[in-house]
Each structure stands twice: as structure tokens, then as C-alpha cells.
Fold:
Amino acid sequence: MKSKIEQAVVQLLEAEKTKSPCAPVRTLIGAQNVENAYAVQNAISRQKEESGARPIGKKIGLTSVAVQQQLGVDQPDYGALFDKMQVAEGNPVSVADLMQPKAEAEIAFVLKKDLTEGNFSLSEIESAIDYAVTAIEIVGSRVKNWDIRIADTIADNASASHFVLGTVRKKLSEIDVVRATMQLTKNEVLVSEGAGTACLDSPLIATQWLANKMVEMGTPLQKDDIVLSGALGPMTTVEAGDILNATIDGLGEVSIRFTP
Structure:
């Protein structure tokens, strides 16, 4: 007989394979059981790696205090990024490859050194970052109707789906990631705006949390990893025909188009 964790793994993988959202997995692993949820996420990641997916970084979720309170937690969560999740700027993404998609704009960092020791200061995080870029993250849920609690979203790889990075690369000395403002348009209509302060007061604080958490979990961040540091404003739903454009002051813009 499969364990509750194994049952949750099968349920989420089947939902992803069939593109048919499933019931919440919290009924199997416990609505607030973060340890079980990460066990599910890790098991799914291992299966994907065994099938040829290449890990290329991490995404940080729940960086909004309001969303944390909604889900009953007091810290962010994280999910794995794989090569097949990255969409090259200029390439469209088919909604047929997505599940209940929404999108948000954020700052992404690319690392130039491993972060293996733990208890990192902000200055150590800054010195490990090679450059920053504007990013659009597409989130998706394998859970029907986004009926999620903390265990559901963590088990479901922090509701990760796809992402696109801008081509303008800036060193941290060239941009104020805390005060930088963001605007996200959908079909040329403003649908979201915010600033770096919306992401745990600073995208660097969010990245500091992630770096320390990954050391604690025994899988430290490594050189060349991409870090999606968290949304700078509310997310928006997307459907076929939509064109999203994200602009972050001092960092440039990035666009993505959705096809049937």
C-alpha cells in the first residue's frame, strides 16, 4: 500500500500529465504539514530529473505578508525551476501546456558563486549575485480551482509553471531593487503594479531566506542558479491571445505572448 506522501505524488503527477486538475492533496498529507509537503515536492522533482529535466534554480513564493496570512503561514516557500520551464523571450507559450495559469512580474537574480555555508548576511547574498533581470513568472496549479492551503502549494512545487527572463542584465550596483517600481500590462492595459518593497521588504531579503533555507534542506544554491525572488505586485489571469509586458524601473522590460 502506498504511503500518503506517495499517493499525493501520484495524484499531482497524474493531474499534470492529463492536464486535469485534481483534488487538494492536503487531505492526504495534512493541511499545515510543511515537512510532508516538501517531501512530496522533492519526490516529484526526483522523478522529473530521472526523466531528463535539468534543475536550473529556484522560485520563491508567498513573499507577500497578506498572502502568508491568507494561507496561515509566517514564511515564504520555494519550488524548483527546470530547464523545460524557461521560455525564451520572443517565443510564445501555449495555454495548452499550462494549468489554470496566472502571471506575475518580479526580479530574477543569477548567481555567480555557490552559497553553501548558511547564516548568510545580506552583503554575502549581494556578493553572490552576478546580475538581475526583469522576469514574468507564470504560475499554475494542479489543484482544481486553486483550492490550496500551504501544504497544497508546496507539494505542487510552489505552484510553479513557466517563466521568461528579460535580456537587460544589471549589476546590483546599477539598480535599487528595493525602490524599483514595476508595471505589468496585459494587452496594453495596466493590470498590476508595485515595487521591490512588496517582496518581503526587499527581493534580497527573500533571496537571503532562500539561500539559508536551501542549506538547511541540504541542497544549497549553486553558481549559475536562477532565483525568481517573488512578485512585486498582484498576479493576473491569462488566456490565449493575451500579451503581457513587464517593466521594472532601471531594469528594463520583458514580454510574453500566449497562444491556443
